[in-house]
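How a chain folds remains the central question behind the approach discussed here. The record that follows shows the chain in one-letter code together with its fold in C-alpha cell form:
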Amino acid sequence: MSGVLHRAYIGLGSNLDGPVRQVRRGIAVLHALPQVESLRASALYRTAPWGRLDQPPFINAVVEIETGLAPRPLLEALLEAERAAGRRRDGTRWGPRVLDLDVLLYDDACIDEPGLHLPHPRLHERAFVLLPLAELAPGLLVPRQGRVEQLLSGVDCAGCERLAADPA
C-alpha cells in the first residue's frame, strides 16, 4: 500500500447466524479490502442488545486499520461487505443483524454528511464499542468527546463479557 495512509477504527457486531463466526468473517473481510491493512483486532465481547432489548445478545469487536481510502469509499466498502454477509437495511434501527460494520473514527476527522458521521455519533454512549476500543487505544482522543478511557468510565458495562481467545 502506498500513498497517504489514514488510521481508522471499525466497529463490528453480529447477533444472527453464528455471531462469533460472522464477526471473525468481518475481520477477515476488512483485512482483504483493497487499500486497507488491518493492524490489530480487539478481543470479542458478548454484549447485551442496545436500543431494542427483544433480541439475542451481540458479539462485538473493534479493528484498527490503516487505509488509503477516504472516509466515504471506506464506508461504501463496509456497506458492501455487510450486504455480502446477508445484511438487509430495511430502516429498522438497532435491530438484529447478521453483520454490522461501522466506521467509528477516521484520523481526527469530524464529518457530518448524509449517511456519514464521524466520529460515530453514539460511540461515547456504548460500552459495546468503548470496551474493545479501550483495549486497542485507551488514550485515544475522540474528537468532540474526550479520551476513550474517560468515556468508558462514564458508561454502564453490565451485560458485557470479554470472551476467551477461542469461544465456541
Q: What stands out?
A: The longest strand covers residues 58-67. The chain has a mean pLDDT of 91. The two ends are 35 Å apart (CA to CA). Residues 71-85 form the longest helix (15 residues).
